Amino acid sequence: MKYELVCGLETHVELSTKTKIFCGCRSHFGSDPNTNCCPICIGLPGTLPKLNKEVVRYAIMAGLATHCEINLVSKMDRKNYVYPDLSKAYQISQYDLPLCKNGYVELESGKKIRIDRIHIEEDAGKLVHKGKDVLIDYNRGGVPLIEIVTCPDISSSDEAKEYIEKLQSIMRYIDVSDCKMQEGSMRCDVNISVRPEGESEFGVRTEIKNMNSITFITKAIDYEYERQVDVIKNGGKIFQETLRYLEESNSTESMRNKENANDYRYFREPDLVTIKTSKEDLEKYKSQLPEFADARFNRYIDEYGISQSDAKLLVKYKKVSDFFEKSIKGISKPKIICNLILGVIFRYIENESDKQEFNIKVSPESLNELVMLLQENKININLAKKYLGQMMETGKKVLEIIPKDSLQGISEEEVKEICKKIIDSNENAVKDYLSGKDKALKFLLGQVMKETKGKANAKFIEEHLMGLIKKA
Amino acid sequence: MVDRSEIINIAKLSKLFIDESEIDEVTKQMDSIIKFANEVQNVSAKGSSFDNVGGLVNVLRSDDVKDSFDRELILKNAGDTKDGYFCVKKSK
After folding, report:
1. Cβ contacts (< 8 Å) between A274 and chain B: which residues?
2. A 157-216 residues with CB below 8 A of B?
3. Are the Cβ atoms of B88 and A132 closer than 8 angstroms?
4. Lesser CB count within 10 Å: N end or C end of chain B?
5. CA–CA separation, B4 vs B27, rounded Å?
6. Is residue A238 within 8 Å of A49, Cβ to Cβ?
7. CB within 8 A of A239, min separation 6: which ones?
8. In DSSP terms, which residues pair with B60 in a beta bridge?
9. C-alpha closest to that of A153 among A94, A106, A196, A208
10. Considering only CB atoms, which chain A residues are within 8 Å of B66?
11. At a CB cut-off of 8 Å and minimum separation 6, what does A160 contact?
């Protein structure tokens, strides 16, 4: 019998607000332990949390960007559990009235991964296990999170990967989170069950907690699928439990039996009042949604004739795509800019996270200026590449790099004259070309380019040279 | 009626230790507490809501950074600390 995978993801996304969800402490990652804390976020008795306005807006934006309905009336609830990462012994979260519900993320195949809900909550502190001690840093305690919960619509590890990447892209495009999995600002809990193909009932599911790498998520899903199928085929039973994924051995181990929802004894958070969103605000948020990666991807291909693979790279990084958009103003062939970004600028940026940040020394205006010169035939593409390299290294503008006299450009007449001169002084090359050696033409072209200091258009020279040779 | 197994479960969730010999007594006490609290259910609450008392909505703060407390103060009430961290013993 064949078994199919049924998988759902709960994704925690840390919001990039300046402060925490219920107090004014900074939500900065990487500070010294317990330096971004106050009585509210370490949960001292008698303190009163106050909800950060931006958290609500960010969460609603996330909901709108994933086609969710927004609950115009919403509230916070207490989720009770005892563990040292929560000093209050409860987490303030949302239970039955999440801010967003019933959305979806569409995969390339057209399949929609439905989103059941998106709610806001506070992150817990970070535990460091050291020998017999558990050290606690509450800097992360109170950092705002949204939890995005899918329906069990994912049926392969590839789909899980694509869904997470799409979600990352969407969250980055609306600028609510940097979604850095390695820093923990995006983490997934993976729910997995299996069932005989064609069966409509769900099998018993297990949950793998706190995954923060796409590679390991796909490995964990594949492993857990195999494990469950194995157990069932050997007549065993799957127990509902929480698992931990072990990277070294690519396997899972049991953490605890899954607590049922009512074991968390949710009840309304009495310290926080109802959250209402007006229809006007909702319309305002809708109008703030940017054009997303998928739409830009299609536009780049249709309007600018950029190849699929290049368009994919451009839109992969929001800041790169924004840079591209800004630098193409007045440029007749935006494809050239695309090539310069991917072919020259990217050579100076080593890793993914730097591409994501895209903090470079060249401004879009300055790249525009350079390509304008190219467009006006004042420089050729090879020079443009060379200058752009220098601009990336020095941060100078193109006009500060180019020698003044070379900007005069060169007239067609001058180019024609030089062509003639080169042909006259290279009889052998002309003979070679006439005897079928195409390379000889490239040599002549090179000579003309040298003489014109690269200012002339290569295509024009080539055609003119051929014309001259034929006449001779 | 509250029964023994519920008390054992609640104790486990709350990480409370209740001696076997005390369970019956605690069960009885919890049962009377629940009965007492349940009287609230007899009140007719039509038209008024105990949820969100006062009817306040959107008490929100803007996303402005405020100074955090000195770490020394934050750790002052901790039972144990180490290298700027709160420190607890690993549970068995």
Report:
1. 52, 56-58
2. none
3. no
4. C
5. 6
6. no
7. A204, A206, A257
8. A51
9. A106
10. 19, 23-25, 38
11. A7, A9, A154, A190, A217, A218, A221
CA–CA separation, A314 and A320 (whole Å)? 6
Residue B23 structure tokens:
């369970």
Listing DSSP states for B14-30 in one string gives TT----GGGHHHHHHHH
Kindly list the residues from chain A whose CB atom is less than 8 angstroms away from the CB atom of residue B54.
273
Secondary structure class of B46 (helix, strand, coil): coil
pLDDT tens readout for residues A326-350: 999 999 999 999 999 999 999 999 8
How big is chain A by its Cα radius of gyration, in Å? 30
A52 reaches B (C-beta below 8 A): yes
User: Which token pair is A405?
Assistant: 């006299």
Tens-digit pLDDT string for chain B (92 aa) = 889 998 998 888 788 899 999 999 999 999 999 999 998 888 876 665 667 777 889 999 999 999 999 999 999 989 999 999 999 988 75
Residue type (1 letter), A456: A
Cβ-Cβ contacts under 8 Å between A and B: the total is: 119
- Report the distance separating Cα A139 and Cα A282, nearest Å: 32
Q: Does A450 touch chain B (CB under 8 A)?
A: no
Q: Which two tokens stand for residue A15?
A: 């919001």
Considering only CB atoms, which chain B residues are within 8 Å of A52? Answer: 60-63
Which chain A residue lies closest to B61 (C-alpha atoms)?
A52
Give the tokens for residue A18. Answer: 């300046």
Q: Is A37 on the interface with B (CB under 8 A)?
A: yes
The one-character DSSP state at A19 is: B
Euclidean distance between CA atoms A167 and A404, whole angstroms: 49
CA distance A241 to chain B (A): 16
E strand or H helix at A172: helix A157-173
Return the residue of B nearest to A16 by Cα: B63
Q: What is the pLDDT of residues A202-259, one digit of tens each?
A: 999 999 999 999 999 999 999 999 999 999 999 999 988 889 899 889 998 887 665 5
Q: What order of strands is seen across the sheet that includes strand A267-268?
A: A90-93, A77-80, A267-268
User: CA geometry: angle at A50 spanning A38 and A271, to 5°?
Assistant: 105
Predicted-complex ipTM score: 0.80
Instruction: Report the distance separating Cα B65 and Cα B48, nearest Å.
Output: 38
Distance from CA of B41 to the nearest CA of A (A): 17
Angstroms from A85 CA to nearest CA on chain B = 10
- Alpha-carbon gap, residue A319 to A315, rounded angstroms: 9
Q: What is the rounded distance in angstroms from the CA atom of residue A230 to the CA atom of residue A470?
A: 76
